């Protein structure tokens, strides 16, 4: 497995395994974040912000990029700090600090925009599938499950302030996903119902508080600064 040019601070198993939706043929997806050497930011070219591999499937974001994604409500990035404990594979002290400030990264506006946006993307993909073909029918059902899961997570975040990564009733999501794949009009009703609940007052502030993330990132940069004298 290749590694990024830096130190992995937090990494774990995400996707269908984390949601409780995995089956025998499911891929195992990994997500994490790393800190590039601080001195690498001082030159002409900035270090790569993401590092993606396949076989195994793993995505690692540089710490600053991950923070920007999380503050924007990105559902995929955000779940990294809400995983069940047993799914973490790397959990450094700085990673623990990030988990500790995860609530400050949440904002009602970003959650509504990002989660409804991602769910709408799944609906568009669903509607392009030919459900008369068994292979594309299975993909349509996968899009539908993601749509249902995203809407459930958005409403739960809005109403409780916690990210529901491990679904409490995965069978419901599977069954509803099958029905949505069969009749995509159901998805329109689900989206409308979720949007209506997200328009009600919730527990999240309108916008996230960037200060804890900024302070954490500065600690990361300080911890990964190693002065190298210039070439003679």
Structural account:
Helix content is 50%, strand content 12%. It has 232 residues and is an alpha+beta fold. Strands 3-4-2-1-5 form a five-stranded mixed beta sheet. A hairpin with a 3-residue loop joins β3 and β4. The chain is globular.
In whole angstroms, the N-to-C terminal distance is 35 Å
Label the overall shape: globular
Mean pLDDT rating: 92
Task: Output the strand order for the largest sheet.
Answer: 3-4-2-1-5
> What is Rg?
19 Å
Secondary-structure element series: EHEEEHHEHHHHHH
- Uncertain runs: none
Q: How helix-rich are the residues, as a percent range?
A: 40-55%
Task: Give a quick rundown of the structure.
The chain is of the alpha+beta class and 232 residues long.
How are the secondary structure elements laid out?
Layout (H helix, E strand, L loop, with lengths): L6 E8 H5 L9 E7 L14 E4 L3 E6 H9 L3 H4 L9 E4 L1 H8 L7 H20 L6 H27 L9 H13 L2 H15 L10 H14 L9
Parallel strand pairs: 2-4
Antiparallel strand pairs: 1-2, 1-5, 3-4
Helix pairs in contact: 2-9, 5-6, 5-8, 6-7, 6-8
Characteristic terms for this protein:
single chain, alpha+beta, 232 residues, 5 strands
């Amino acid at each position: 497995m290749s590694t990024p040019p830096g130190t992995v601070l937090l990494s774990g198993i995400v996707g269908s395994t984390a949601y409780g939706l995995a089956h025998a043929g499911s891929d195992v997806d990994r997500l994490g974040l790393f800190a590039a050497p601080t001195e690498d930011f001082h030159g002409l070219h900035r270090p790569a912000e993401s590092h993606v591999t396949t076989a195994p499937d793993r995505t690692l974001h540089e710490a600053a990029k991950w923070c920007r994604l999380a503050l924007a409500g990105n559902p995929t990035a955000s779940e990294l700090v809400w995983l069940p404990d047993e799914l973490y594979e790397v959990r450094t002290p700085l990673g623990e600090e990030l988990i500790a400030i995860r609530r400050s990264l949440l904002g009602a506006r970003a959650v509504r925009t990002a989660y409804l946006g991602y769910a709408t993307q799944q609906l568009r993909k669903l509607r392009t599938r030919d459900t008369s073909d068994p292979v594309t029918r299975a993909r349509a059902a996968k899009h539908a499950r993601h749509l249902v899961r995203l809407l459930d997570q958005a409403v739960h975040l809005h109403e409780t302030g916690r990210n529901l990564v491990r679904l409490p009733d995965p069978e419901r999501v599977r069954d509803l996903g099958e029905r949505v794949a069969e009749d995509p009009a159901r998805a329109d009703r689900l989206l409308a119902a979720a949007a209506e609940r997200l328009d009600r007052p919730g527990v999240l502030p309108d916008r996230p508080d960037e200060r804890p993330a900024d302070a954490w990132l500065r600690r990361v940069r300080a911890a990964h600064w190693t002065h190298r004298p210039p070439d003679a």
